[in-house]
Specification:
mainly beta; Chondroitinase Ac, Chain A, domain 3; five-stranded antiparallel β-sheet; 19 strands
Length: 266
């Protein structure tokens, strides 16, 4: 009987030890499995403006979609884009990829500001005010913000998200509520002669504007020697110098036909 009790006691001890070891191993295994995979965070906008692909967003005539245009680059790999925008109290997004190894430049992509059901029904998002666009390729990440604005003939002035770029239209420049996008572009539409970039490039993007367009760009505080505003001319695919006036770190000029501007120091 004594031996039987000893054997039973030994089995109980072994069982408890095994259970404890199982729980410890299970805990360790659970801890290992639940550890999240580290996410690599790429630095943003670290390469010079001149080395970035040119990219902008132009609203269609209804303001229901944005045309993404990418050009002037030698990238030959897959580029991922992420458009995030504020629609009322909600944040919406459009995501996609562009394979620049197979697509010809310029690449144009229509981004719907809404959703489309499996049955084909389209719901447009309302109350859009602006957002951001992120471009990622290789170890490069670029990001710029944009304003999604509607023309008001009683106050025909619009500005960029950083408020350093503003555009004054004629009060009859377009119909009220027509959408205008303002933003810093992702690079240059054409090679710029060797200059020191002081501000930009900035752009306003819409369709068919009437009358004079006056652009103002605020420069970093300090002494500015001969700052020159350049406008990109789509007809000649080149930069054209404008007759600008400097006042309190802000240079102002009347545009010709262009919508993309940059300020350089000669």
């Amino acid at each position: 009987m004594k031996n039987k009790k000893i054997i039973i006691s030994s089995l109980v001890v072994v069982a408890l030890f095994s259970l404890g070891a199982f729980l410890i191993l299970r805990k360790d295994s659970s801890d290992i499995d639940s550890t999240p995979t580290p996410v690599i965070s790429l630095p943003i906008n670290t390469i010079p403006v001149e080395d970035r692909p040119y990219l902008n967003l132009t609203p269609d005539s209804t303001g229901r979609s944005l045309k993404l245009l990418l050009d002037n680059t030698d990238i030959s790999e897959v580029v991922e884009y992420e458009l995030v925008y504020q629609a009322g109290t909600k944040q919406e997004g459009v995501f996609g990829r562009l394979n620049l190894a197979t697509e010809d430049l310029p690449v144009v992509k229509d981004l719907l500001l809404g959703s489309r059901s499996a049955g084909g029904k389209t719901t447009y998002h309302e109350g859009i005010t602006g957002g951001s666009l992120t471009l990622t390729y290789g170890e490069t990440k670029l990001k710029e913000s944009f304003n999604f604005l509607r023309f008001d003939s009683t106050d025909p002035v619009v500005s960029s998200p950083d408020a350093r770029f503003s555009v004054k239209f004629a009060d009859n420049a377009m119909l009220d509520n027509k959408v205008i996008v303002t933003m810093k572009t992702f690079g240059l539409p054409a090679v710029l002669p060797t200059r020191t970039i002081l501000a930009g490039p900035y752009a306003y993007l819409t369709n068919s504007v009437k009358g004079d367009v006056i652009v103002s760009i605020r420069l970093p505080a300090g002494e500015h020697i001969n700052p020159t505003v350049y406008e990109y001319d789509t007809n000649s695919d080149d930069w054209v110098a404008l007759d600008g006036k400097l006042s309190d770190d802000t240079v102002t000029a009347t545009a010709n036909t262009g919508t993309t501007f940059i300020v350089v120091s000669n």
